[in-house]
Amino acid sequence: MTNTNEAKPVNVLSAEVMITTAFQDADPMGVVYHGNYFRFFEKARHEMLEKIGYSYRDMMASGYVWPIIDTRVKYVKSIPYDHKIRVEATLTEWENRMRVDYVIYDAETNVRMTKAHTMQVAVSIETEEMCFVSPRIFTDKVEAYHNA
């Protein structure tokens, strides 16, 4: 993030999406299969990145892809199918990598059901090399959003 001596950003970059889980998301017991959570995270991350004009198409157009290199999920409470959830995504690191934290809530009771994060790094499309700092095209967009 930023140096702790600097002023904190005014606007935190985050987004939320509402999802009703589908029958095909569930296992035979009627509980959402753990691998499907990543689709829910992706929807929220997509909305978050749209806010700064850096969608996956924009990333590629700027010469970078951003593969996920690490993830962690804590399944707090199982999610049944045909259930309304609210998925929040918040950008928490961006200078050297992109870390996005997620929380899934029951949309009706606001009970936390899942907590997770993903980490992505920029990789140059041209050289196929991982970047040790995030590209300026990305960090400038994040800083502009925070300071707006």
End-to-end span in angstroms?
17 Å
Strand order of the largest sheet: 1-4-5-6-3
Query: How many structural domains in the coordinates?
Result: 1
Second CATH tier, the architecture: Roll
* Top-tier CATH class: Alpha Beta
Largest sheet: 5 strands, antiparallel
Q: What average pLDDT do the residues reach?
A: 93
Structural category is alpha+beta
Give the DSSP E fraction (strand runs of 2 or more residues): 25-35%
**CATH fold description:** Thiol Ester Dehydrase, Chain A
In the predicted model, the low-confidence regions spanning at least 5 consecutive residues are 1-8
Rough outline: globular
Could you state the order of secondary-structure elements as H and E?
A: EHHEEEEEEH
Treating each run of at least 4 consecutive H or I residues as one helix, how many helices?
3
What's the β-strand tally?
7
- CATH homology group: Hotdog Thioesterase
Helix content: 10-25%
Rg, Cα atoms, Å: 17 Å
Your description of this structure?
Strand 5 (98-106) and strand 6 (112-120) form a beta hairpin. The protein has one domain: Thiol Ester Dehydrase, Chain A, CATH 3.10.129. With 148 residues, it is α+β, with helices and mostly antiparallel strands. It has a 5-stranded antiparallel beta sheet. Strands 2-7 form a two-stranded antiparallel sheet. The protein has 3 helices and 7 strands, in the order βααββββββα. The two termini are 17 Å apart. This is Esterase. It holds the Pfam family 4HBT_2. It is an enzyme of class 3 (hydrolase). One of its GO terms (molecular function) is fatty acyl-CoA hydrolase activity. Keywords: Hydrolase.
